[in-house]
Specification:
46% of the residues lie in helices and 23% in strands. With 178 residues, the protein is an alpha/beta fold. The protein has a 6-stranded mixed sheet. Helix 2 packs across helix 5.
């Protein structure tokens, strides 16, 4: 991959009362902040009551992305009248969710399952949710919160992410003092 290219992309669209985000490439730390921001806007503005993440073109996920997904799922469950679901999930990506315990808090359907939500959500057009990598503090905070969420939902994750959490805490402190 050359400099300046980013195959990780999110596209968002509204279809009736549904906000749909399609993940293209990897669900990664690069796209997590823009996904989180978009979904927070949907909730604040009540611009949709269902939020679907279309994973049909998602080739993989990193821990930050999965932690953000878990945090958003928990947030949406605390908001009456909203629904959050991953659709068209591959077996490979389901296994990633299971590995960290994210499957315990996120509603999902597999690509191999017949799902009315998936049928309703073919994105035509939509806007790209561009990753803003310029704000290093926001990116570090999002990554830290994502990993804290992974530990909250599955305490066994602490041993996996202990050094990552320590690094991110130091990074957030350092960037906050700049």
């Amino acid at each position: 991959m050359g400099l300046g290219t980013n195959s990780d992309n999110l596209t968002a669209a509204y279809i009736d009362d549904i906000a749909v985000i399609r993940v293209e490439g990897r669900g990664s730390f690069k796209v997590s902040p823009s996904m989180k921001q978009f979904i927070h806007q949907v909730i604040e503005k009540k611009s949709a009551n269902r939020i679907l993440i279309d994973m049909s073109d998602c080739s993989g996920m990193d821990s930050t992305f999965m932690g953000v997904i878990a945090g958003l799922a928990c947030l949406v469950k605390s908001k009456p009248g909203f629904n959050f679901k991953l659709i068209n999930l591959s077996d490979k990506n389901k296994k990633l969710l299971v590995t960290l315990g994210v499957d315990r808090v996120v509603d999902y359907s597999l690509a191999s399952e017949k799902d009315a939500d998936a049928d309703a959500c073919a994105i035509c057009g939509g806007k790209s949710l561009d990753a803003d990598l310029s704000n290093k503090l926001d990116a570090a905070k999002t990554t830290l919160e994502a990993h804290e969420t992974l530990v909250d939902i599955n305490p066994e994750n602490y041993s996996k992410f202990k050094s990552v959490l320590e690094f991110l805490e130091d990074d957030v402190r350092s960037l906050s003092n700049e």
